[in-house]
């Protein structure tokens, strides 16, 4: 094995999201968010991606009529809201240089429409970011991570309503000003490309409120509003925090052709282009011609106000961040092929890759591929802000947790990052997802664990919430301390 080298200043760390970690869903003035309507769905078929994320107006009404935190586990999270200092101590012990987290919009503006922010919410994040900096941990903060205020989702069907842009900009300006001395790395929208996969969590849109023949158009309209808001928030950040950096964040759904048949290769090319559309807009500052032609072909009319396209063109991002969990396969014969599930969508099984307990295909080489491809396409710094293995952990009688499977996963993926760096790719850092066990996005389980730190809480909310270092905790600590050099051994 050739020598593994990471640049000086490489940002090693981890990632969580407010809605999956904080809990305290109705504490200190916080309003309900779309995440507080997420039901526990461990029984859902792993290959049925739509069922995992499906939510209706009736479901939302039922959620708001209930105070149950067991049916809706994201409401309790892992109590990070009260235990964040303890958790930051553990992250600092591992040597984290950065922690990616998000600000729950409804902690700052409970309904999203207020003109004055909730001071207790502002104080919480000020304390969180201050404590991070005191431990030498750089905050990487996502503004909109599947947690918009529920009131805005109900008021105008989320981002379908252009008025949400102004509400969002009031929120972003407020936090930029409050945390201008604490945060220099920002992301606007988490996995902005997920709008069509789970529109309610991404954009607060309930599709059952839209006539079926108009749903696609409505989602593209909401997406346009998010692109405009992202650009305007980038302008705000640059005016308020000189020297700060803004990134976009997308799901990298790297897709291979099933075979070298030209039809499969062309299909994979188009699938990759469709996935990269969202970062293309935020990096290049324009809608690509293929998307405009598709809208015209499909009869989709996206209303753009005067100046919208200039705003998108003028305020592009400084770096590209992305999540990477698995690769995909494109096949013109997909209907006749075996399928696998995943956090992205159901797809054709790749016979050359192993599959996790949750039916995700594990492909570290694909991460090298993705990094080189993104670097060649955008010529901007890249940041892997999510990656990880969801798995069940066993606590031994002595309290230890031997998660060698997680160590193997991260070893292979970190080596894949090093391989891309050796090819000249500018990688800013790596923040594995769920660095401490948190409630999962799709099914709201605790048993699907990602962390280096074990949280004593089961799927039904039973447990002490005590934190325990897993074997992978000590391994990752050594990786960070050596800046990856330990992988040469």
TrEMBL record:
<dbReference type="GO" id="GO:0008706">
    <property type="term" value="F:6-phospho-beta-glucosidase activity"/>
</dbReference>
<keyword id="KW-0378">Hydrolase</keyword>
<dbReference type="InterPro" id="IPR017853">
    <property type="entry name" value="GH"/>
</dbReference>
<dbReference type="InterPro" id="IPR033132">
    <property type="entry name" value="GH_1_N_CS"/>
</dbReference>
<dbReference type="GO" id="GO:0005829">
    <property type="term" value="C:cytosol"/>
</dbReference>
<dbReference type="InterPro" id="IPR001360">
    <property type="entry name" value="Glyco_hydro_1"/>
</dbReference>
<keyword id="KW-0326">Glycosidase</keyword>
<dbReference type="GO" id="GO:0016052">
    <property type="term" value="P:carbohydrate catabolic process"/>
</dbReference>
<dbReference type="Pfam" id="PF00232">
    <property type="entry name" value="Glyco_hydro_1"/>
</dbReference>
<comment type="similarity">
    <text>Belongs to the glycosyl hydrolase 1 family.</text>
</comment>
<protein>
    <submittedName>
        <fullName>Cryptic phospho-beta-glucosidase B</fullName>
        <ecNumber>3.2.1.86</ecNumber>
    </submittedName>
</protein>
């Amino acid at each position: 094995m050739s020598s593994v080298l990471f640049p000086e200043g490489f940002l090693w760390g981890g990632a969580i999201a407010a809605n999956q970690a904080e809990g305290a869903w109705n504490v200190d003035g916080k309003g309900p968010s779309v995440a507080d309507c997420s039901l526990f769905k461990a029984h859902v078929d792993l290959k049925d991606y739509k069922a995992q994320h499906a939510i209706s107006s009736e479901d939302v009404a039922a959620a708001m009529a209930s105070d149950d935190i067991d049916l809706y586990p994201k409401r309790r999270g892992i109590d990070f809201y009260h235990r964040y200092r303890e958790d930051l101590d553990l992250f600092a012990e591992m040597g984290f240089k950065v922690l990616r987290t998000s600000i729950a919009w409804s902690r700052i503006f409970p309904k999203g429409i207020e003109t004055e922010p909730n001071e207790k919410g502002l104080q919480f994040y000020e304390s969180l970011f201050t404590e991070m900096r005191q431990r030498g941990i750089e905050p990487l903060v996502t503004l909109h991570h599947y947690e918009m205020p529920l009131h805005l989702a109900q008021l105008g069907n989320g981002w379908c309503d252009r008025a949400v842009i102004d509400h969002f900009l009031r929120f972003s300006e407020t936090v930029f000003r409050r945390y201008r001395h604490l945060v220099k790395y920002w992301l606007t929208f988490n996995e902005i490309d997920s709008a069509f996969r789970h529109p309610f969590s991404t954009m607060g849109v309930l599709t059952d409120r839209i006539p079926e023949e108009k749903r696609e158009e409505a989602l593209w309209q909401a997406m346009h509003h998010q692109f405009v808001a992202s650009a305007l928030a980038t302008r705000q950040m640059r005016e308020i925090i000189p020297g700060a950096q803004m990134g976009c964040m997308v799901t990298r759904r790297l897709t291979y052709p099933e075979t070298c048949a030209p039809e499969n290769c062309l299909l994979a090319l188009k699938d990759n282009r469709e996935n990269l559309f969202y970062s293309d807009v935020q990096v290049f500052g324009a809608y690509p011609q293929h998307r405009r032609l598709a809208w015209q072909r499909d009869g989709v009319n996206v209303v753009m106000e005067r100046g919208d396209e200039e705003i998108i063109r003028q305020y592009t991002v400084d770096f590209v961040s992305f999540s990477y969990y698995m690769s995909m396969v494109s096949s013109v014969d997909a209907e006749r092929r075996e399928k696998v599930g995943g956090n992205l969508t159901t797809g054709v099984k790749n016979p050359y890759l192993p599959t996790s307990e949750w039916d995700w295909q594990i492909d570290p080489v694909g991460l090298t591929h993705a990094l080189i491809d993104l670097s060649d396409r955008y010529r901007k710094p890249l940041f892997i802000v999510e990656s990880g293995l969801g798995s069940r952990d066993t606590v031994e009688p002595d309290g230890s947790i031997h998660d060698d499977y997680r160590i193997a996963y991260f070893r292979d993926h970190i080596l894949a990052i090093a391989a891309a760096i050796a090819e000249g790719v500018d990688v800013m850092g790596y923040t594995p997802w769920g660095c401490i066990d948190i409630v999962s996005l799709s099914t709201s389980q605790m048993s699907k664990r990602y962390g280096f730190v074990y949280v004593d809480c089961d799927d039904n909310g039973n447990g002490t919430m005590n934190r325990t270092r897993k074997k992978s905790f000590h391994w990752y600590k050594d990786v960070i301390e050596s800046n990856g050099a330990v992988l040469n051994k």
